[in-house]
Amino acid sequence: MKQLKLLFVGLLLVAANGLFAQITFTEGTFEEALAKAKAEKKNLFIDFYANWCGPCKVMAAQVFTIPPVGDYFNEHFINCKLDCDAAANKEVVKRYKVESLPTLMFLDSKGEVLRTLVGAVTPDVLMLEAQIATGEELPFEKLYEKSRKEKKNTELQQKLLIRAPHFIGTQNGYNQEKWKVRIDALFPEYLKTKKLENMINPTDFTILSLYHPEMEKQDGIFDFVVKNYDRYGEAVDKETVQNYLIGLYNTYILRLCSTGKTDYRQALGRIGGDLRAIYAGMPFGDLTAVEAVTLLADSYFNLFRHNLPLFFENMDKYFAGAGKALSINDYTQPIEDLYGIYQGNPPDNARPMLIQWLDRALTFDMTAQLRARLLMLLAENQQKTGDSAKAKQSLNQAFIVCAGIPEEAVKVQLQNMIREKLNDL
């Protein structure tokens, strides 16, 4: 009996922790929440939402429920949810000029705005804005000013580089361009001051991923990460490091292919050399990594030269060799790239093969939106090859699939497009 009582108490504690770890929103009106904030000498956090707002639901389910977020907000703020469609909140919505949802606002106890976020954000961004509102962190502009005075302070530089993408995304026009230039100049300063050998850690790897998205022929950063692949794998995550390096190198090879010269073939040699261990974990079916990437490189070399027979021939060799290791992206990416090369209008001799690839792509699991778009693309190619009956069938199927799209606006837009295409048949 005693053990059962202890178990019951333990379950209650677990339930209580689950309940109080999320943000606790106070009941009542805005005025009551503001009065409570003043009485408790706290700031006020407001979630302006509406029941029809999808991103609002994402915040409520996936961000406000995270324990560190809940703990911090419950300790430092009075938290209040305001339904923007409720008549009682109309005056508050107008006063604070809420035009988009969700709007997340931090106020002091007098009702003055401290910080505002518009749209769904990650937990890290929400926490940072909360810490700025409480004075624990500096706003981005002030952090930058401080770093200019302390030019050797790599901790400040690191913070700026991590925070910059979100901050720049909130700027417009001249301000946005100004901050892009400043941050682009800060990255090499940071590298020079801190040095790569001191950057084998998760935060600095994120910075490399953000600010070194392409490699050059002589690339010290790429070569350093390759040389220290195992150390980065232990400090960060091997798969993450692998994806970064392979992404850089594959993109570099494609860039060489796009020049129309055969220089890319020399670059392929590294895949069987110092990059062997990095490519070893990638699934290529019956193909070696060198064979797989060579086939893809030869395919794209010919695509850039508009030699479609050789493009399709090499791609089909890759598909046959990769077999069960193929993913939907293996089909959709070359289809997208072919459309891009031909500015959305592939030649007629490409369409029979596009129909085959689209049919194969549609056998994979995918979102309703992607399936609807692929069916619409299939219908276009079927129509262009003179098979209006199959095109109509594909469009009708796409219309039905749209019912599974959760975003109402996207669903309606796609269904209207499908109706127009059906009317044109």
TrEMBL record:
GO terms for molecular function: protein-disulfide reductase activity. Keywords: Redox-active center, Signal. Gene3D superfamilies: Glutaredoxin. GO terms for biological process: cell redox homeostasis. Residues 11-137 form the Thioredoxin domain. Residues 1-21 form the signal peptide. This is DUF255 domain-containing protein. It comes from Odoribacter splanchnicus.
